[in-house]
Amino acid sequence: MSKSNNPLNDPRNQAAETQLVHGGIMRSQFNETSEALYLTSGYTYPNSEHAEALFKGDIPGHNYSRFANPTVDVLLERMALLEGAEDARGFASGMAAVTAAVMSQVRADDHIVAARALFGGCRYVVEEFMPRWGVQSTLIDGRDPKNFEAAMRPNTKLVFIETPTNPTLELVDIRAVADIAHAHGARLVVDNVFATALYQKPLQLGADLVTYSATKHIDGQGRVLGGLVLGSKELIGGEVHTLLRQTGPSLSPFNAWVLLKGLETMPLRVRQMTESAVRIADFLAGHPKIARIMYPHHPSHPQYELAKRQMTAGSTLVSFEVKGGQEAAFKLGNALAVILISNNLGDAKSILSHPRTTTHQRLSEEARLESGVTPGLLRLSVGLENTDDLIKDIDYALSQV
Asked: Which of 50, 133, 155, 315 sits 20 to 30 Å CA-CA off 215?
Protein backbone atom coordinates (compact mmCIF):
# COMPACT_ATOMS: atom_id res chain seq x y z
CA MET A 1 0.00 0.00 0.00
CA SER A 2 1.40 3.40 -0.94
CA LYS A 3 1.79 6.10 1.61
CA SER A 4 -0.96 8.18 -0.02
CA ASN A 5 -3.48 5.38 0.64
CA ASN A 6 -2.40 4.61 4.19
CA PRO A 7 -5.41 5.11 6.51
CA LEU A 8 -3.08 6.56 9.16
CA ASN A 9 -2.44 9.54 6.89
CA ASP A 10 -5.73 10.77 8.37
CA PRO A 11 -4.86 11.75 11.96
CA ARG A 12 -8.44 10.97 13.00
CA ASN A 13 -7.54 7.28 12.52
CA GLN A 14 -4.58 7.53 14.89
CA ALA A 15 -4.54 6.75 18.59
CA ALA A 16 -4.24 9.62 21.05
CA GLU A 17 -0.55 8.94 21.73
CA THR A 18 0.22 9.27 18.00
CA GLN A 19 -1.98 12.36 17.55
CA LEU A 20 -0.17 14.11 20.39
CA VAL A 21 3.19 13.61 18.71
CA HIS A 22 2.28 14.33 15.09
CA GLY A 23 -1.11 16.06 14.99
CA GLY A 24 -1.46 19.42 13.28
CA ILE A 25 2.19 19.66 12.23
CA MET A 26 2.92 22.33 9.59
CA ARG A 27 6.54 22.17 8.49
CA SER A 28 8.25 25.12 6.90
CA GLN A 29 10.45 24.99 3.82
CA PHE A 30 13.24 23.71 6.08
CA ASN A 31 11.36 20.48 6.92
CA GLU A 32 12.20 20.68 10.61
CA THR A 33 11.45 17.67 12.85
CA SER A 34 10.23 19.65 15.86
CA GLU A 35 7.44 22.19 15.48
CA ALA A 36 8.66 25.62 14.44
CA LEU A 37 8.36 28.53 16.86
CA TYR A 38 7.03 31.64 15.12
CA LEU A 39 7.80 34.59 17.36
CA THR A 40 6.17 37.31 15.29
CA SER A 41 3.42 39.78 16.01
CA GLY A 42 2.50 40.54 12.39
CA TYR A 43 2.74 39.25 8.82
CA THR A 44 3.46 40.74 5.40
CA TYR A 45 1.34 40.41 2.27
CA PRO A 46 2.52 40.04 -1.33
CA ASN A 47 0.16 42.78 -2.48
CA SER A 48 -2.72 44.98 -1.33
CA GLU A 49 -5.33 42.74 -2.93
CA HIS A 50 -4.06 39.79 -0.88
CA ALA A 51 -4.27 41.82 2.31
CA GLU A 52 -7.83 42.88 1.50
CA ALA A 53 -8.94 39.30 0.82
CA LEU A 54 -7.27 38.08 4.01
CA PHE A 55 -8.92 40.68 6.21
CA LYS A 56 -12.29 39.97 4.60
CA GLY A 57 -11.85 36.27 5.34
CA ASP A 58 -11.99 35.26 1.70
CA ILE A 59 -8.66 33.41 1.90
CA PRO A 60 -6.89 31.63 4.76
CA GLY A 61 -3.80 33.06 6.40
CA HIS A 62 -2.52 35.17 9.26
CA ASN A 63 -2.62 38.90 9.80
CA TYR A 64 -1.94 39.40 13.51
CA SER A 65 -0.75 37.06 16.28
CA ARG A 66 -3.26 38.42 18.78
CA PHE A 67 -5.77 36.00 17.29
CA ALA A 68 -3.87 33.71 14.89
CA ASN A 69 -0.30 32.40 14.82
CA PRO A 70 1.19 29.34 13.06
CA THR A 71 2.66 27.83 16.26
CA VAL A 72 -0.58 28.34 18.16
CA ASP A 73 -2.45 26.82 15.21
CA VAL A 74 -0.54 23.54 15.57
CA LEU A 75 -1.43 23.35 19.26
CA LEU A 76 -5.10 24.02 18.53
CA GLU A 77 -5.26 21.40 15.78
CA ARG A 78 -3.53 18.83 17.98
CA MET A 79 -5.86 19.44 20.92
CA ALA A 80 -8.92 19.39 18.67
CA LEU A 81 -7.87 15.96 17.41
CA LEU A 82 -7.48 14.65 20.96
CA GLU A 83 -10.74 16.17 22.15
CA GLY A 84 -12.76 15.23 19.07
CA ALA A 85 -13.62 18.91 18.53
CA GLU A 86 -14.17 20.77 15.30
CA ASP A 87 -12.27 23.87 16.40
CA ALA A 88 -10.34 25.44 19.27
CA ARG A 89 -8.82 28.70 20.48
CA GLY A 90 -5.88 29.35 22.81
CA PHE A 91 -5.80 31.80 25.70
CA ALA A 92 -3.19 33.27 28.02
CA SER A 93 -4.31 31.17 31.01
CA GLY A 94 -6.91 28.69 32.10
CA MET A 95 -8.96 31.42 33.78
CA ALA A 96 -8.83 33.50 30.58
CA ALA A 97 -10.25 30.47 28.74
CA VAL A 98 -13.05 29.95 31.28
CA THR A 99 -13.93 33.66 31.29
CA ALA A 100 -14.02 33.75 27.49
CA ALA A 101 -16.16 30.60 27.27
CA VAL A 102 -18.70 32.04 29.71
CA MET A 103 -18.75 35.66 28.49
CA SER A 104 -18.98 34.72 24.83
CA GLN A 105 -22.25 32.86 25.33
CA VAL A 106 -24.30 35.32 27.40
CA ARG A 107 -25.62 38.87 27.25
CA ALA A 108 -27.16 41.27 29.76
CA ASP A 109 -30.39 39.91 31.29
CA ASP A 110 -29.32 36.30 30.64
CA HIS A 111 -28.98 33.73 33.42
CA ILE A 112 -26.33 31.11 34.24
CA VAL A 113 -26.80 27.90 36.20
CA ALA A 114 -23.61 26.45 37.68
CA ALA A 115 -22.63 23.71 40.07
CA ARG A 116 -21.48 25.39 43.27
CA ALA A 117 -18.47 23.08 43.68
CA LEU A 118 -16.09 25.14 41.53
CA PHE A 119 -12.51 26.34 41.63
CA GLY A 120 -12.46 29.70 43.44
CA GLY A 121 -11.66 31.71 40.30
CA CYS A 122 -14.41 30.03 38.29
CA ARG A 123 -16.92 30.67 41.04
CA TYR A 124 -15.89 34.33 41.08
CA VAL A 125 -16.53 34.66 37.34
CA VAL A 126 -20.00 33.15 37.60
CA GLU A 127 -21.11 34.52 40.97
CA GLU A 128 -19.51 37.97 41.15
CA PHE A 129 -18.04 39.07 37.82
CA MET A 130 -20.87 38.30 35.42
CA PRO A 131 -23.55 40.07 37.51
CA ARG A 132 -21.62 43.32 36.90
CA TRP A 133 -22.72 43.02 33.29
CA GLY A 134 -26.32 42.14 34.06
CA VAL A 135 -25.95 38.35 33.93
CA GLN A 136 -27.37 36.65 37.00
CA SER A 137 -26.45 33.19 38.25
CA THR A 138 -27.80 30.37 40.36
CA LEU A 139 -25.41 27.93 42.06
CA ILE A 140 -26.71 24.49 42.92
CA ASP A 141 -25.55 21.12 44.22
CA GLY A 142 -24.37 19.57 40.97
CA ARG A 143 -24.40 15.97 42.13
CA ASP A 144 -28.11 15.58 41.32
CA PRO A 145 -29.21 16.52 37.77
CA LYS A 146 -32.66 17.35 39.13
CA ASN A 147 -31.15 20.44 40.75
CA PHE A 148 -30.19 21.78 37.33
CA GLU A 149 -33.70 21.23 36.04
CA ALA A 150 -35.17 23.07 39.02
CA ALA A 151 -32.82 26.04 38.58
CA MET A 152 -33.47 26.64 34.88
CA ARG A 153 -35.29 29.83 33.91
CA PRO A 154 -36.70 31.11 30.61
CA ASN A 155 -33.60 33.35 30.28
CA THR A 156 -31.04 30.67 31.21
CA LYS A 157 -28.54 30.62 28.36
CA LEU A 158 -25.58 28.82 29.92
CA VAL A 159 -24.86 25.94 32.28
CA PHE A 160 -21.31 25.72 33.65
CA ILE A 161 -19.78 22.76 35.45
CA GLU A 162 -16.44 21.20 36.30
CA THR A 163 -16.25 17.47 36.82
CA PRO A 164 -14.52 16.08 38.79
CA THR A 165 -14.80 19.19 40.92
CA ASN A 166 -12.01 21.13 42.58
CA PRO A 167 -11.08 20.13 45.26
CA THR A 168 -13.62 17.57 46.51
CA LEU A 169 -13.68 15.45 43.32
CA GLU A 170 -17.46 15.35 43.17
CA LEU A 171 -18.93 14.37 39.81
CA VAL A 172 -21.59 15.90 37.60
CA ASP A 173 -23.48 13.71 35.13
CA ILE A 174 -22.47 15.45 31.90
CA ARG A 175 -24.94 13.71 29.60
CA ALA A 176 -27.91 14.28 31.91
CA VAL A 177 -27.05 17.95 32.43
CA ALA A 178 -26.44 18.48 28.69
CA ASP A 179 -29.91 17.10 27.94
CA ILE A 180 -31.47 19.46 30.50
CA ALA A 181 -29.56 22.48 29.19
CA HIS A 182 -30.47 21.79 25.57
CA ALA A 183 -34.13 21.18 26.41
CA HIS A 184 -34.21 24.73 27.78
CA GLY A 185 -32.28 26.28 24.89
CA ALA A 186 -29.09 26.71 26.91
CA ARG A 187 -25.51 25.64 26.22
CA LEU A 188 -23.27 23.55 28.45
CA VAL A 189 -19.65 24.47 29.22
CA VAL A 190 -17.50 21.84 30.96
CA ASP A 191 -14.17 22.53 32.66
CA ASN A 192 -12.40 19.20 32.04
CA VAL A 193 -9.05 19.95 33.69
CA PHE A 194 -9.08 17.26 36.38
CA ALA A 195 -10.15 14.39 34.13
CA THR A 196 -8.01 15.48 31.15
CA ALA A 197 -9.02 14.81 27.56
CA LEU A 198 -7.42 11.38 27.90
CA TYR A 199 -9.98 10.12 30.41
CA GLN A 200 -13.16 12.08 29.70
CA LYS A 201 -14.78 13.42 26.51
CA PRO A 202 -17.42 16.03 27.40
CA LEU A 203 -18.27 16.86 23.78
CA GLN A 204 -19.19 13.23 23.15
CA LEU A 205 -21.45 13.40 26.19
CA GLY A 206 -23.32 16.45 24.91
CA ALA A 207 -21.29 19.46 26.08
CA ASP A 208 -21.09 22.47 23.76
CA LEU A 209 -17.75 23.89 24.91
CA VAL A 210 -14.86 22.38 26.86
CA THR A 211 -12.22 24.41 28.69
CA TYR A 212 -8.73 23.58 29.94
CA SER A 213 -6.04 25.19 31.95
CA ALA A 214 -3.17 24.01 29.76
CA THR A 215 -0.92 25.07 32.64
CA LYS A 216 -1.82 21.76 34.29
CA HIS A 217 -1.40 18.32 32.69
CA ILE A 218 -0.79 19.64 29.16
CA ASP A 219 2.39 21.48 30.14
CA GLY A 220 2.80 19.19 33.11
CA GLN A 221 6.14 20.56 34.24
CA GLY A 222 5.32 23.87 35.89
CA ARG A 223 6.72 26.08 33.13
CA VAL A 224 4.10 28.18 31.35
CA LEU A 225 0.51 29.40 31.53
CA GLY A 226 -2.09 28.64 28.90
CA GLY A 227 -5.78 27.96 28.35
CA LEU A 228 -7.95 26.32 25.70
CA VAL A 229 -11.59 26.40 24.63
CA LEU A 230 -12.82 23.70 22.24
CA GLY A 231 -16.13 23.01 20.52
CA SER A 232 -17.96 23.32 17.21
CA LYS A 233 -16.80 25.56 14.38
CA GLU A 234 -19.96 27.60 14.83
CA LEU A 235 -19.34 28.44 18.49
CA ILE A 236 -15.54 28.65 18.41
CA GLY A 237 -15.30 30.49 15.10
CA GLY A 238 -18.13 32.79 16.14
CA GLU A 239 -18.44 34.42 19.55
CA VAL A 240 -15.39 32.77 21.16
CA HIS A 241 -13.11 33.96 18.35
CA THR A 242 -14.70 37.42 18.31
CA LEU A 243 -14.07 37.88 22.03
CA LEU A 244 -10.47 36.69 21.66
CA ARG A 245 -9.86 38.94 18.68
CA GLN A 246 -11.38 42.08 20.16
CA THR A 247 -10.26 41.80 23.80
CA GLY A 248 -6.87 40.12 23.37
CA PRO A 249 -6.34 37.45 26.11
CA SER A 250 -4.00 35.72 23.66
CA LEU A 251 -1.81 32.66 24.09
CA SER A 252 1.80 33.51 23.29
CA PRO A 253 3.51 31.50 20.53
CA PHE A 254 6.34 30.59 22.90
CA ASN A 255 3.93 29.18 25.48
CA ALA A 256 2.09 27.32 22.73
CA TRP A 257 5.38 25.76 21.63
CA VAL A 258 6.17 24.63 25.18
CA LEU A 259 2.66 23.18 25.48
CA LEU A 260 3.19 21.25 22.25
CA LYS A 261 6.28 19.67 23.78
CA GLY A 262 4.19 18.81 26.84
CA LEU A 263 1.50 17.13 24.76
CA GLU A 264 4.06 14.70 23.32
CA THR A 265 4.61 13.13 26.73
CA MET A 266 1.21 13.76 28.35
CA PRO A 267 -0.16 10.20 27.93
CA LEU A 268 2.96 8.69 29.52
CA ARG A 269 2.96 11.19 32.38
CA VAL A 270 -0.75 11.04 33.13
CA ARG A 271 -0.81 7.25 32.99
CA GLN A 272 2.02 6.94 35.53
CA MET A 273 0.53 9.62 37.78
CA THR A 274 -2.85 7.87 37.68
CA GLU A 275 -1.35 4.51 38.60
CA SER A 276 0.33 6.14 41.60
CA ALA A 277 -2.89 7.96 42.55
CA VAL A 278 -4.77 4.66 42.69
CA ARG A 279 -2.20 3.18 45.07
CA ILE A 280 -2.14 6.29 47.25
CA ALA A 281 -5.94 6.34 47.46
CA ASP A 282 -5.91 2.70 48.59
CA PHE A 283 -3.27 3.50 51.23
CA LEU A 284 -5.15 6.51 52.58
CA ALA A 285 -8.49 4.70 52.61
CA GLY A 286 -7.24 2.30 55.27
CA HIS A 287 -5.41 4.81 57.48
CA PRO A 288 -6.89 5.47 60.94
CA LYS A 289 -6.02 9.20 60.85
CA ILE A 290 -7.95 9.81 57.62
CA ALA A 291 -11.64 10.66 57.95
CA ARG A 292 -12.46 10.17 54.28
CA ILE A 293 -10.82 9.98 50.87
CA MET A 294 -12.10 11.25 47.54
CA TYR A 295 -10.99 9.51 44.36
CA PRO A 296 -13.43 8.93 41.49
CA HIS A 297 -12.45 5.34 40.72
CA HIS A 298 -12.18 4.21 44.34
CA PRO A 299 -15.16 2.07 45.40
CA SER A 300 -15.73 4.33 48.42
CA HIS A 301 -16.59 7.28 46.19
CA PRO A 302 -20.35 7.95 46.48
CA GLN A 303 -20.57 8.44 42.69
CA TYR A 304 -18.36 5.50 41.82
CA GLU A 305 -20.75 4.06 39.22
CA LEU A 306 -21.03 7.42 37.42
CA ALA A 307 -17.24 7.76 37.53
CA LYS A 308 -16.78 4.35 35.91
CA ARG A 309 -19.35 5.22 33.25
CA GLN A 310 -18.13 8.74 32.49
CA MET A 311 -14.35 8.50 33.02
CA THR A 312 -12.08 5.78 31.67
CA ALA A 313 -9.74 6.23 34.66
CA GLY A 314 -9.74 8.12 37.97
CA SER A 315 -7.00 10.59 36.93
CA THR A 316 -4.19 12.10 38.96
CA LEU A 317 -5.74 13.84 41.99
CA VAL A 318 -6.63 12.45 45.39
CA SER A 319 -8.35 14.53 48.04
CA PHE A 320 -8.63 13.46 51.65
CA GLU A 321 -9.72 14.80 55.02
CA VAL A 322 -7.37 14.49 57.97
CA LYS A 323 -8.87 13.94 61.40
CA GLY A 324 -8.03 16.91 63.60
CA GLY A 325 -8.96 19.71 61.18
CA GLN A 326 -6.68 22.45 59.92
CA GLU A 327 -4.04 21.99 62.63
CA ALA A 328 -3.61 18.34 61.68
CA ALA A 329 -3.61 19.17 57.96
CA PHE A 330 -0.85 21.74 58.47
CA LYS A 331 1.22 19.30 60.54
CA LEU A 332 0.96 16.73 57.78
CA GLY A 333 1.99 19.19 55.09
CA ASN A 334 4.90 20.54 57.12
CA ALA A 335 6.30 17.04 57.73
CA LEU A 336 6.57 16.09 54.04
CA ALA A 337 9.99 15.70 52.40
CA VAL A 338 9.22 14.84 48.77
CA ILE A 339 5.72 16.22 48.20
CA LEU A 340 5.69 19.99 47.80
CA ILE A 341 3.25 22.50 49.28
CA SER A 342 1.92 24.52 46.35
CA ASN A 343 -1.34 25.25 44.54
CA ASN A 344 -0.68 23.96 41.01
CA LEU A 345 -1.71 20.51 39.78
CA GLY A 346 -1.00 18.09 36.97
CA ASP A 347 2.72 18.64 37.50
CA ALA A 348 5.59 16.16 37.32
CA LYS A 349 6.21 17.06 40.97
CA SER A 350 3.68 15.91 43.56
CA ILE A 351 1.91 18.88 45.12
CA LEU A 352 -0.22 19.19 48.24
CA SER A 353 -2.59 22.08 48.83
CA HIS A 354 -4.89 23.12 51.67
CA PRO A 355 -7.85 24.58 49.75
CA ARG A 356 -9.45 26.32 52.74
CA THR A 357 -6.46 28.65 53.14
CA THR A 358 -5.32 28.89 49.51
CA THR A 359 -7.47 28.35 46.41
CA HIS A 360 -10.77 28.80 48.29
CA GLN A 361 -9.70 31.22 51.00
CA ARG A 362 -11.58 34.19 49.53
CA LEU A 363 -14.92 32.37 49.87
CA SER A 364 -16.96 32.71 53.03
CA GLU A 365 -16.77 29.85 55.52
CA GLU A 366 -20.39 29.06 54.69
CA ALA A 367 -19.58 28.81 50.98
CA ARG A 368 -16.51 26.68 51.68
CA LEU A 369 -18.42 24.21 53.82
CA GLU A 370 -21.24 24.18 51.28
CA SER A 371 -18.68 23.08 48.69
CA GLY A 372 -17.18 20.45 51.00
CA VAL A 373 -14.01 22.45 51.72
CA THR A 374 -13.55 21.53 55.37
CA PRO A 375 -10.65 22.61 57.64
CA GLY A 376 -8.99 19.19 57.39
CA LEU A 377 -9.32 18.79 53.62
CA LEU A 378 -6.15 18.37 51.55
CA ARG A 379 -5.80 18.00 47.77
CA LEU A 380 -2.92 15.94 46.45
CA SER A 381 -1.82 16.21 42.83
CA VAL A 382 0.22 13.07 42.27
CA GLY A 383 3.43 13.50 40.29
CA LEU A 384 6.04 11.28 38.69
CA GLU A 385 8.12 10.39 41.72
CA ASN A 386 8.53 6.77 42.78
CA THR A 387 5.16 5.64 44.15
CA ASP A 388 6.69 3.89 47.16
CA ASP A 389 8.55 7.09 48.07
CA LEU A 390 5.31 9.07 47.92
CA ILE A 391 3.50 6.60 50.17
CA LYS A 392 6.42 6.57 52.63
CA ASP A 393 6.39 10.38 52.64
CA ILE A 394 2.67 10.52 53.41
CA ASP A 395 2.95 7.74 56.00
CA TYR A 396 5.70 9.56 57.88
CA ALA A 397 3.80 12.85 57.73
CA LEU A 398 0.69 11.18 59.13
CA SER A 399 2.76 9.80 62.02
CA GLN A 400 3.48 13.40 62.99
CA VAL A 401 -0.21 14.31 63.20
From this structure: 133
Residue range 349-358: mean pLDDT, rounded: 95
Query: Which residues, in sequence order, are CB contacts of 54 under 8 Å at separation 6+?
Result: 45, 61, 63
Does position 105 have pLDDT exceeding 90, yes or no?
yes
CA–CA distance, 148 with 151 (Å, rounded to integer): 5
Contact 359, 167 (CB under 8 A): yes
Give pLDDT, residue 372. 84
Alpha-carbon torsion (80, 261, 273, 94), positive or negative: negative
Residue 208 has pLDDT above 60, yes or no: yes
> What average pLDDT does this structure show over 127-150?
97
Same domain, 300 and 385: yes
**375: cis peptide before it, omega within 30°?**
no
- Please tell me whether residues 185 and 83 are part of one structural domain: yes
Instruction: State the Cα–Cα distance between residues 82 and 77, nearest whole angstrom.
Output: 9
Distance (Å) of CA 159 to CA 103, 171, 179: 12, 15, 11
H-state helical runs in 25-126: 48-56, 70-83, 94-103, 120-124
Sign of CA dihedral 220, 222, 226, 227: positive
Residue 360 has pLDDT above 90, yes or no: no
Q: Which of 41-45, 146-150, 345-349, 363-367 has the lowest mean pLDDT?
A: 363-367
Residue 307's domain spans which residues?
267-399
Rg (CA), the chain: 22
As beta bridge partners, residue 91 has 227, 250
233-245 mean pLDDT: 97
Which of 219, 237, 261 is the last residue in one of the domains?
261
3-state helix, strand, coil in the chain (%, to 5): 45, 15, 40
Partner residues linked to 156 by β-bridges = 111
> CB within 8 A of 286, min separation 6: which ones?
none
Look at the chain and report how many structural domains it folds into.
Answer: 2
Name 379's bridge partners. Answer: 319, 353
Q: Indicate the residue type of 107.
A: R
Mean pLDDT for 82-101 is 98
Q: From CA 244, how far away is CA 251, in angstroms rounded? A: 10
pLDDT of residue 106: 98
CB 188 within 8 A of CB 178: yes
